[in-house]
Automatic annotation (TrEMBL):
<dbReference type="InterPro" id="IPR053135">
    <property type="entry name" value="AKR2_Oxidoreductase"/>
</dbReference>
<dbReference type="InterPro" id="IPR017896">
    <property type="entry name" value="4Fe4S_Fe-S-bd"/>
</dbReference>
<protein>
    <submittedName>
        <fullName>Aldo/keto reductase family</fullName>
    </submittedName>
</protein>
<dbReference type="Pfam" id="PF00248">
    <property type="entry name" value="Aldo_ket_red"/>
</dbReference>
<dbReference type="InterPro" id="IPR017900">
    <property type="entry name" value="4Fe4S_Fe_S_CS"/>
</dbReference>
<keyword id="KW-0411">Iron-sulfur</keyword>
<dbReference type="InterPro" id="IPR036812">
    <property type="entry name" value="NAD(P)_OxRdtase_dom_sf"/>
</dbReference>
<dbReference type="GO" id="GO:0046872">
    <property type="term" value="F:metal ion binding"/>
</dbReference>
<dbReference type="GO" id="GO:0051536">
    <property type="term" value="F:iron-sulfur cluster binding"/>
</dbReference>
<keyword id="KW-0479">Metal-binding</keyword>
<feature type="domain" description="4Fe-4S ferredoxin-type">
    <location>
        <begin position="326"/>
        <end position="354"/>
    </location>
</feature>
<keyword id="KW-0408">Iron</keyword>
<dbReference type="InterPro" id="IPR023210">
    <property type="entry name" value="NADP_OxRdtase_dom"/>
</dbReference>
């Protein structure tokens, strides 16, 4: 499998195995790890919050007798811990996985300004520095579900060697920041391009037609790799979930013309279906006094009407307000029609009406995140 530079550390395979799903038994995770290694994946991503993932990973690596030189491990650390607790979490991770050093440690979810302050000036800064000084971690990064403004602050802080971002074919909002990070020498990992990228392992017929000649998941993977993203996470539950990673194992640099054309065709198809209600995701309408994340809600509307992605959009909409700072807090029915956003929209969208429409389209029972911290 092709490997790409990743910050200051060793090169990583263009696919990373995320270990949050193969948790039914140690054997299940071992089988997934064995397939990943067999197809050339050298990077495993885990977190203390992923249930027994770390214990099972340690058991799998021992059972498979994998040489330490053949794999890299990234773990995560939730912001907000005091110094003693943070160091204890890192040491416990090392013990569970059976390592004396993590290749990468990411601050898990710089979603709010206080999380970044914790990492740069607060106890997190001390924890990260101590981990590096003691040789417990090779390099330090962050993941974020936060705003582009916050992610840019984290990137430009100069503290981090890599970042894990929501980079999706159908949500390219963060792509300019990914390019900025890459240009600064950071590694960039795409979080969940298949699942959070649109449940692309189970695409609706309309999306499948619009992606022709590619499979939707194939197009998403090829597009992200064409944009230079270092590595893409695959949260495999079964060895067969890695089939596309095997097929796309060898990739060059640059965007293939056929991939660029298919991605542009997909965007055009969406705009044609939405006509003058298409939200261009420019974010000019923010801030909203009710704290409605207007672009995110209207992006779900774009996807629902433009690509027929009902199941995905209803799932994501149902999570709003149910997952703390990991997702938007307020649904479309919170709009008071104050009108503040209207003059800021370059497309002159009737935002309150579109939010009401979005709510009617997508409301359903509340959902829970896979990991409910
Ligand atoms: S009209 Fe609605 S969405 Fe727009 S700023 Fe006011 S409350 Fe927010
Ligand atoms: S300003 Fe208009 S086009 Fe831009 S994100 Fe907001 S609603 Fe969408």
């Amino acid at each position: 499998m092709t490997r790409r530079p990743f910050g200051q550390g060793p090169a990583v395979s263009v696919f990373t195995l995320g270990l949050m799903r193969a948790l039914a038994s140690p054997l299940q995770l071992q089988q997934v790890v064995a397939r990943a290694l067999a197809i050339g994946i050298n990077h495993f991503e885990t977190a203390p919050a992923y249930g027994p993932s770390q214990t099972y990973l340690g058991q799998a690596l021992a059972a498979l007798a994998v040489s330490r030189h053949h794999y890299l491990v990234t773990s995560k650390l939730l912001p907000g811990l005091d110094v003693g607790s943070g160091l204890a979490v890192v040491r416990a991770t090392l013990q569970r996985v059976g390592l004396d050093r993590l290749d990468q440690l990411a601050v898990h979810g710089i979603n709010r300004p206080e999380h970044l302050r914790w990492a740069l000036q607060g106890p997190g800064a001390e924890i990260l520095a101590a981990c590096e000084a003691e040789g417990l971690v090779g390099q330090v990064g962050f993941s974020s579900h936060g705003s582009p403004e916050l992610v840019e602050q984290a990137i430009t802080s100069g503290r981090f060697d890599f970042c894990s971002l929501h980079l999706h074919l159908l949500n390219p909002t963060m792509m300019p920041l990914a390019r900025q990070a890459l240009a600064a020498g950071m590694g960039v990992m795409a979080i969940s391009p298949a699942d959070k990228g649109g449940r692309l392992f189970d695409p609706p017929d309309l999306l499948r037609q619009q992606c022709t000649p590619f499979d939707p998941l194939e197009l998403a993977y090829r597009w992200l790799l064409g944009r230079g993203v270092s590595t893409l996470t695959v949260g495999a539950a079964r060895p067969s979930d890695l089939d596309w990673a095997q097929r796309l194992a060898w990739v060059g640099d640059g965007m293939p013309a056929a991939v660029a054309a298919a991605a542009e065709g997909l965007n055009q198809a969406c705009q044609q279906r939405l006509q003058d209600t298409f939200c261009g995701q420019c974010r000019c309408c923010l801030p909203c006094p009710e704290d409605i994340d207007i672009p995110t809600l209207l992006r779900l509307r774009n996807l629902r009407l433009g690509h027929g992605m009902g199941a995905f959009c209803e799932e994501r909409y149902g999570l709003i307000g149910q997952a703390g700072h990991w997702l938007p807090l307020v649904r479309g029915d919170a709009c008071t029609r104050c009108g503040d956003c209207l003059p800021r929209c370059p497309r002159n969208l009737e935002i309150p009406t579109l939010l009401q429409h979005t709510h009617g389209l997508l409301q359903g029972p509340p959902r829970r995140r896979l990991w409910g911290w």
